[in-house]
Amino acid sequence: MGSTITTRVPDDIDKKIKNISRIEHLDKSTVVRRLLSKAVQDWQIDHVLDQYKDGKITIGRAAQMAGVPLREMIALAAKKGIPFQYDLDDLKEDFQAAESL
Q1: Alpha-carbon distances of 21 from 11, 17, 38, 40, 66, rounded to whole Å
Q2: Between helices 28-53 and 59-66, what is the axis angle to 10°?
Q3: pLDDT tens per residue, range 62-96
Q4: Sequence-distant contacts of 3-7: CB under 8 A, at least 24 apart
Q5: Among 13, 44, 61, 80, which residue's CB has the most CB atoms within a 10 Å radius?
Q6: d(CA 23, CA 19)
Q7: Burial state string for 41-79 with b = 16 or more CB within 10 A and e = fewer than 16
Q8: In which region does residue 3 sit, left (phi positive, over 0), alpha (psi from -120 to 50) or beta (all else)?
Q9: Distance (Å, rounded) from C-alpha 86 to C-alpha 44?
């Protein structure tokens, strides 16, 4: 199943969660799990894009680490104004990554 995490949230956040719960016809726990999952995914994408921007990893590796398709990662980088960096070494690395799938 998973682990239990207990936390306190400000009243305004609790009200927003209750509102989402009402609109989506879901219990609060499900809403919190979905929001937390989305926040973790967003953080992970931001993190790998920072690494890509700093030249630490390739765009292919960033996509792999974030668990998203390469095309989506390229679009996310463009949306954040991160210039496309791709050379022969990157191409070789991406081919190796694709072969391992």
Answers
A1: 15, 6, 16, 20, 28
A2: 160
A3: 999 999 999 999 999 999 999 888 778 877 877 88
A4: none
A5: 61
A6: 6
A7: eeeebeebbeebbeeebbbbbbbbbbebebeebbebbee
A8: beta
A9: 21
